[in-house]
Amino acid sequence: MTFRSLLSRMYTNLPGWRTKRKIVVIESDDWGSIRMPSREVYQKCLNAGYPVDRIAYERYDTLLSQDDLELLFNLLKTFKDKNGNNPVFTANCVVANPDFERIRKDDFKKYYYELITDTFKRYPEHTKNFSLWNEGITNRIFFPQYHAREHLNVSLFMDALQKGNEAVHFGFENEMPGNLTLGPEGLGNYFVEATKYSSLRDKEEKLKVYLEGLDIFEKLFKYKSRTIIPPNYIWSPDHNNAVLEKEVNIFQGIRKICEPVPGQKSIYHNVYLGKKNKFGQIYLVRNSIFEPSLFNSGIRDHVGRCLGDMSIAFSMNKPAIIASHRINYAGFVDEKNRDRSLVLLKQLLTEALRRWPDIEFMTSLQLSKLITEV
């Protein structure tokens, strides 16, 4: 750990709510979203010159299969905290994906989506996914919260399709939402920035889509999502009251929230753990990282890095809020990715419980309720 890195990690924990309890929250984004559809499509992308092997999310991220879910859930069940609770993933979910067939039939004139429950049915090893999710909820190891309607910037996506963008059409034909550009310097898939807008009209449309997704979430899971985390931490404070009316009063995320400003540079808003906005909504701030699949992160020892983050948090009387995206547990495209992460997750949980036997595993919602009780 460099001195600069240590200072940055300590700074994250300086302001805001404190507790002497050793609380551990695992926040995991992107559940339900299509990214790389299959290993066959991955190979097609490479053969066509798209550098999907150079960006972790294009190389590994995909819908978890039934085997992926069962392996992860079985691992979580083997650990318990001092209160007898298992580690629990606050799984931030999208509720829909593009309906490629209907969009194609309509000659790209209009966007259509399908619910994640229908997406699962179309995949060969995923038909039981939603029932497995519900088993995870019952067993208190998997707690869905709302991420977005889909992890896709719909207006940007449809505009690219209508203009004949080669890369996006290639992705579309292979049922990928968006794609990289061609060549060794291929840019990232910026179509995943679901809440980014380019005009005031687009801003209104993005909010409409986001609110619709919240309603779908409630219908799917039979409860409201009280916490949200907008994709890529992109969000306008102008939307806060609208989601509050849907009973959202907690924002998950990092220290900075990016607010798009059409035609200008984005504005970054600083938040801290327990900070309240003018509507009384509070912010949770991730202060620990466990992302073994992100091979360009510069982190070599993922277990050691996360334990170090947790140690700093606990020493400063803060809960450890761990960022650990879905990508780490996905094996449908590459089983080695999943298997490596599960081995490391087992090491992390084993060592964390050895060092801090008084750990308490919680969801983001449970932590937020504790913060607001004080």
Structure in words:
- With 374 residues, the protein is an alpha/beta fold.
- It has one domain: TIM Barrel (Alpha-Beta Barrel), CATH 3.20.20.370.
- Helix content is 40%, strand content 14%.
- It is built from 14 helices and 13 strands.
- Strands 1, 2, 5, 11, 12 and 13 form a six-stranded parallel sheet that branches. Strands 6-7-10 form a three-stranded parallel sheet, covered by helices on one side.
- Helix 4 packs parallel to helix 7 and helix 12 packs parallel to helix 13.
- The longest helix is centred in the middle third of the chain and has 22 residues.
- The protein is globular and about 60 Å long.
- The chain starts with a helix and ends with a helix.
- The relative contact order is 0.19.
Q: In sequence order, what are the helices and strands, one letter per element?
A: HEHHHEEHEHHEHHHEHEEEEEHEHEH
Under CATH, the topology can be stated as TIM Barrel
- How would the global form be characterised? globular
| Uncertain residue ranges | none
| Beta-strand percentage range | 5-15%
Percent in helix? 25-40%
Question: Which class in CATH terms?
Answer: Alpha Beta
Q: Please state the CA-atom Rg, rounded to the nearest Å.
A: 20 Å
CATH level-four homologous superfamily name: Glycoside hydrolase/deacetylase
* Strand tally: 13
How many helices?
A: 14
Estimated structural class: alpha/beta
Largest sheet: 6 strands, parallel
> Per CATH, which architecture?
Alpha-Beta Barrel
Distance between the termini: 34 Å
If you average the pLDDT, what whole number results? 96
Count of discrete domains: 1
